[in-house]
Amino acid sequence: MKHFFLFLILVVPFCTVASASERSNTVLIRPGEVIYARFTQKGIKLKLVSATKEKNDEAQLVVTMDPADPEKKAGTPFKIVSKFTRDLNYRLEVRDSKNTFALPIVTGRVVAEKMAVDKLPPFVAEVALYGFELEK
User: Fold this and answer.
1) What kind of architecture, by CATH, is found in domain 25-134?
2) Residues 42, 100: Cα–Cα separation, whole Å
3) Are 38 and 58 in contact (CB under 8 A)?
4) Following CA atoms 45, 51, 55, 56 in sequence, which dihedral angle do they give, to the nearest 10 degrees?
5) Considering the chain, what is the average pLDDT of its residues?
6) pLDDT tens column, 34-76
7) In 3D, which of 118, 112, 42 has the Cα closest to residue 83?
8) Which spans in 67-111 are helix H?
9) Collapsing DSSP states into helix, strand and coil, what is residue 12?
10) How far is 47 from 131, CA to CA, in rounded Å?
11) Which stretches does DSSP call E strand in 30-123?
């Protein structure tokens, strides 16, 4: 039994590093936040350089998720502003706080140098955006 726990102590740090690297190109946002993201571009692929809550005029993508109004039950307002000169495609995963539901992963699109606005379910705890690509 001692060997098993020793094995766990040695293996667990490597497992957390692996999961962190999987999320290296993901933008996470929660209700009430604004995220400013910058990317490097290689062809049509985009790699996330930074995602911060501090205002950044050089950000190529600004993601806003307003807090939901529980009295109206109208949903959570969600907005993406793209400063890219080509249309942007991405994937969006909606998560709740208790992981009690699973919404399908959605592919989204923002027209070049425009804004996309949508309403998410009112019980959203966070949204993960990833798979950023520019259209040809």
Assistant:
1) Sandwich (2.60)
2) 38
3) yes
4) -40
5) 81
6) 999 999 999 999 999 999 999 999 999 999 999 877 666 678 8
7) 112
8) none
9) helix
10) 9
11) 33-42, 45-52, 61-65, 76-82, 88-95, 106-110, 115-120
Cα dihedral 109, 104, 28, 82 in deg (nearest 10): 0
> Best-predicted range by mean pLDDT among 7-11, 20-24, 82-86, 123-127?
82-86
Closest CA to 65 of 52, 77, 82: 77
Strand-pairing partners, residue 56, are none
Q: Which amino acid is at 78?
A: F
Tally the residues of the chain: 136
Answer positive or negative: Cα dihedral of 120, 121, 125, 131: negative
**Distance between start and end Cα atoms, the chain:** 56
In this prediction, residue 23 carries a pLDDT of: 61
* Cα 26 to Cα 28: distance, rounded to the nearest angstrom: 6
Residue 7 main-chain phi, psi, to 5 deg? -60, -45
CB distance 121 to 77 below 8 Å: no
